[in-house]
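Think of the structure tokens as a kind of shorthand, similar to the way a musician reads notation: each symbol stands for something richer, in this case the local conformation of the backbone. In the example below we present two proteins back to back. Begin with the first one, reading the sequence and then the tokens, and try to describe in your own words what changes along the chain.
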Amino acid sequence: MFRTPDHILRWAVSTRRKYATLVPRVAARIPGLVIVRLRTPAEAAAWLSGPLASAQGQAAGR
């Protein structure tokens, strides 16, 4: 299972250092960029039904 290159756990382990350095660099280059880190399914569900849904509604109303 972990031997397949596209396995999610293998990807997470192999890319964590890349994104640990990339995200702060991008955030520094783009003022006002909102970075969301969702660590649990409950956090993801709350974000999808709350802030993301609100932002999507605002964008549709333009």
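Once you have a description of the first chain, move to the second and do the same.
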Amino acid sequence: MALHFCSLSVKILTLFVIILLFLPRAVTAIPELELESMLAAVRTRGYNLFCNAITTSDIYYEVLAGTSFTFFAPTDASLFALDMIATSSDYITTLRFHVVPRRFSLSDLRTLPPGSSLHTLVPLHDISIERLPSLGFDIITANGINVVVPGLFYGRDIAVHGLGGILSFRSQIGQRQDSPPPPSEANFSGNHSSVVGDSHAPPPENSSSFDRFAQRQDSPPPPSEANFSAWSG
């Protein structure tokens, strides 16, 4: 009887283990401590505005709900300049364009095939990664912007690389930065029309004044000819 009970217990235990093995594993979110550690470390390296923007936007909570991420941190100067010309929605979209929903270390970036692109938090907008040979080491670029501080931070689920500028995506704000629309050209012409006019194209009034002055010098009036005839006689 005891032997039969032990055999039954073993079977039940085996069945329980099998069930546990086939249960779907819960997705482990990024610990908030790791995200806070990343923000603190990146701030100490001079990328303050990027960290502040992440903390005050919904990107913070989106990262906590994810599994792994790579951040390409733009410089403070470039973010400050963007803040001067961009709307709040464009600004947040630009931040999201610097976040890749997968962890890539420097070695991972170097081993990517040529022409590889990484998906970002902005749908249909990827980051093109290139490796440029240099003296002694390879330079990694993201959409043509140099990765100047690779491995700025490494955590279990997060990697951060510092950029030498900022990534611009093909949208309304990208057009303002790269190819100004016609209204901007009109404003530029309007602001500098007086300078251009004085330097290269004198106004009609000046031209007519010059013509009258030339006429007085080159073709003397009839009274002068009369005086000359009287003197000759």
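Compare your description with these statements about the second chain. Residues 171-233 have pLDDT under 50 and may be disordered.
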